[in-house]
Amino acid sequence: MATPRTVAFYTLGCKLNYSETSAIGRTFEDRGYSEVKFEEGANIYVINTCSVTEFADKKCRQIVRRALRFSPEAFVVVIGCYAQLKPKEISEIPGVDLVLGAAEKFRILDFIDDLSKVPEKGMIRASDVKEANQFVNAFSFGDRTRSFLKVQDGCNYKCTFCTIPLARGKSRSDTVENVISNAKKIGEAGTKEIVLTGVNLGDFGNGTEVIEGARPKKEAMFIDLIKELDKVEEIERFRISSIEPNLCTDEVIEFVAESERFVPHFHMPLQSGNDKQLRMMSRRYKSELYVQRVKKIKSIMPHCCIGVDVIVGFPGETDEDFLETINFLENLDISYLHVFTYSERANTPAAEMEDAVPMEKRRKRNEMLRNLSAKKKEIFYRQYLGRYRDILFEVHRDETKMTGFTDNYIKVELPFQADLINKIATVQLQNINEEGNVEAMLADIPAAIFDY
Question: CATH 1.10.12: does it fit domain 388-449?
Answer without folding.
Answer: no
